[in-house]
Amino acid sequence: MNLTEYVKRVSVEDFGWEFRHQAYWNKRLRTTGGRFFPKDGHLDFNPKIYETFGLATFRKIVRHELAHYHLYYQGKGYRHGDRDFKDLLKRVDGLRYAPSLSNLQTFLIYECLSCGALIRRRRRVNLQKYRCGRCMGKLRLSENA
Length: 145
Prior knowledge:
The protein is α+β, with helices and mostly antiparallel strands.
């Protein structure tokens, strides 16, 4: 089942209303679980949330975005601070905030080929340009990273 079909099923089961637009995965999302676009009605979702926290948490995020969606098309308050939004979100058991992915940050580990030093970095290092800070030896990306 693809993402749009899943969102349509959640919409009918949890809200009793039909979802008529498209849902997409957006790998560029970092701190949010999903987004609703009033301009064209589509929804974006963070695949990292699904991979990290599982289907139960992801379904609650889908409910959150569908609450924005349905309230917008009903002409009610669809923003986070609106009473209509808070009430609907509580009624369908949606998440108010996405769980944090910041403490799950991964590191790349580089190993010096001369002295064996291990160097942790969050971003990739250009191995043609950078060397070990201790002995100026060449670096390689460690397999156990």
